[in-house]
Amino acid sequence: MSSSPEALARPRFGLLPRIAVAIVLGILLGLVLPEAAARVFTTFNGVFSAFLGFLIPLIIVGLVAPAIGELGRGAGRMLAATAGIAYLSTILCGFFALAVSLLLLPRLLSGSEVGPLENPEDSAIAPFFSLEIPPVLDVMTALVLSFCLGIGLTLVPRGALHESFDQFRTIVVRIIEAVIIPLLPLYIFGMFLGLTMNGQIMTVIGTFFVVVVIVLAMTLIVLLLQYAVAGAAMGRNPLRMLWTMAPAYMTALGTSSSAATIPVTAECAKRNGVPEAIADFVIPLCATIHLAGSTLKITTFAVAIMVVTGMPLSVPVLIGFVLMLGVVMIAAPGVPGGAIMAAAGILSSMLGFGEAAVGLMIASYIAIDSFGTATNVTGDGAIAAVMTRLSRGRIDPLPAAGTHEVHGI
């Protein structure tokens, strides 16, 4: 029985509203729900966490290896230059977030420590049963294997091996889209239910509010810095260039999708004088590999959780985390919450996050997902401007911004 056109056109209840409802219900029901009922959700969270732990190494191999393989083909030097600039932008944003977080968060969150976050399945709310699903690989093994396979894919002609990895990536992305993402609200509901019943929820809420304000302020500073560089590269007013990118920012804010924003981002970049050939190459590529805003958010929330849970803040470890996060972000799938799912492995392996901390990271990331996406795509326009400068003399620039019509924005 096929769906009617009206049913197909009916707006879907998006992931962010579902996450918000899950958090509110988890807090409210945590105050009144009897322990017997809470055990149902504790059991689900234990099974889901075990499945997620099993899946994370497969996510890393399925996303990182083919992504590295693809970066070795195509437009040669221009591809390498764009990828290098995107990675540099991403890790610089991560280091900026790390520096601000280490400077401000220990002071702003002092007195908010809750100790190690308890996993609901480890608390007094015992599950009905537990299920262990050992992963095929540990996370670091998966990362090293992905690098080796990805580099190997760049050295051999495209054939059955490349197609196999492409299909494996499709399987991984479909599991994320069809299983992990739909079940996240229920998992986060169980997390906040447990936090409420364990008496930790008020500190978590206070931490969320403080960190969100800091993240939004940092994204604005990052965009101003990116367009200062872009303006210098193009010889144009950086604030005017940033304003020209406003339609792309607002589109990403509404869709939470870099891919869906590609046409608008490309048109805005062209209005800033980026040649069509460069815009049509750089913007789609950067929509996949340039996740500066996402890196900024993940780094900041990770430090915040480490502060409130009393984990040691080792600067060398955090620097290594940012460098590795920049690589993982290149392979993050373009689905809501895809970046944090790709980062879950190194949060556990490099920073020592437990299941409850990873769940809290997922909730905090998705809560302001659209702002990170908007920062990502707006920064793509700055990279396109820098690539225009690097390609000067080989590609003719477009007329100055505002001298031609741009439709559909």
UniProtKB/TrEMBL annotation:
It is found in: Membrane. The chain crosses the membrane at residues 48-68, 80-105, 139-159, 171-195, 201-229, 241-262, 282-308, 315-334, 340-368. It is a multi-pass membrane protein. Its main location: membrane. Keywords: Membrane, Transmembrane, Transmembrane helix, Transport. It comes from Brachybacterium hainanense. This is Dicarboxylate/amino acid:cation symporter. Pfam families: SDF (PF00375). InterPro entries: Na-dicarboxylate_symporter, Na:dicarbo_symporter_sf.
